[in-house]
From TrEMBL, chain A:
InterPro entries: ER_ret_rcpt. Its main location: endoplasmic reticulum. It is found in: Endoplasmic reticulum membrane. It holds the Pfam family ER_lumen_recept. It comes from Phanerochaete carnosa (strain HHB-10118-sp) (White-rot fungus). One of its GO terms (cellular component) is endoplasmic reticulum membrane. The chain crosses the membrane at residues 55-77, 97-113, 119-138, 150-167, 179-199. Keywords: Endoplasmic reticulum, ER-Golgi transport, Membrane, Protein transport, Receptor, Transmembrane, Transmembrane helix, Transport. This is ER lumen protein-retaining receptor. One of its GO terms (biological process) is protein retention in ER lumen. Belongs to the ERD2 family. It is a multi-pass membrane protein. It comes from the Eukaryota. One of its GO terms (molecular function) is ER retention sequence binding.
Amino acid sequence: MNLFRLFGDLSHLASIFILLHKIRTTRSCRGISFKTQALYVAVFVSRYLDILWEWVSLYNFVMKVFFIASSCFILYLMKMKYRPTHDPSIDTFRVEFLVGPCALLALIFNYKFTFTEVLWSLSIFLESLAILPQLFMLQRTGEAETITTHYLAALGAYRALYIPNWIYRYFSEGVVDPIAVTAGLVQTALYADFFYVYFTTVIQGQKFELPA
Amino acid sequence: ETLHRQKDEL
């Protein structure tokens, strides 16, 4: 474990708590893409189900359980408790266009052609694109509540911090995970535009608004 | 084998 990864994971944890806080305090899931959240459930369940047969560490186990549970809980909040506050008419990204190509990529690029390894690859590819429905929604509405932008910033920081972690591990352990690195670079790049607006507006105390 | 997945990463 190095600091980049630790802070990356903590940032990921923070993003979940920010999202839960946003839903609770505003009693609404307005501005949150249900499709993105549903993709995260698929990502975490397919990747972290290995807790059933693989023991890595207590840290690893607790985090995996937390991410599976919290993503399912958020989906429950959106679908049941705060259902009326979710407007499907602006959450229109076509998810099937992501899942198909990701499944194909997972079949081609994996470390072993077994069910669990292909599933792992699929979860990595899917995670890298899972934020797209959310960013698409942001683009459509052109603005976001400040708390929602903090959620996205924490989520983006999580994957961004994994990049120095991989560089560090390459030099200290001599290991590279090309699938995770490639997907991670793509995922971080998707946030570039968001981060630019976030740092030039929200951090300066202004409202997050995209130029028309 | 230097190319493999890191089982400890989340």
